[in-house]
Design goal:
Elements (H helix, E strand, L loop, with lengths): L1 H4 L5 H20 L13 H5 L7 H9 L5
């Protein structure tokens, strides 16, 4: 009879308590990760310049992975 009188934690109650604990821990951990916003340092010409260069290691990657030339 003593087993029946013990308070049982239901699944929803357990998940609710775990959820509250993770929210509280997340709020304290996320605070130092937030920093001030920084503006974009590139001008329009730098943003539009060609960046892809088919170098030797890129050609080797394509050859090894059987990409069509």
């Amino acid at each position: 009879m003593s087993d029946e009188t013990k308070a049982k934690v239901g699944r929803r109650d357990f998940l609710r308590k775990v959820g509250i604990g993770t929210v509280g821990a997340g709020a304290t951990l996320a605070t130092p990760l937030v920093g001030p916003a920084q503006a974009d340092s590139e001008n329009n010409d730098e943003k539009r310049k060609a960046r892809y260069k088919e170098s030797d290691h890129v050609k080797t990657y394509y050859r090894v992975n059987r990409y069509p030339a």
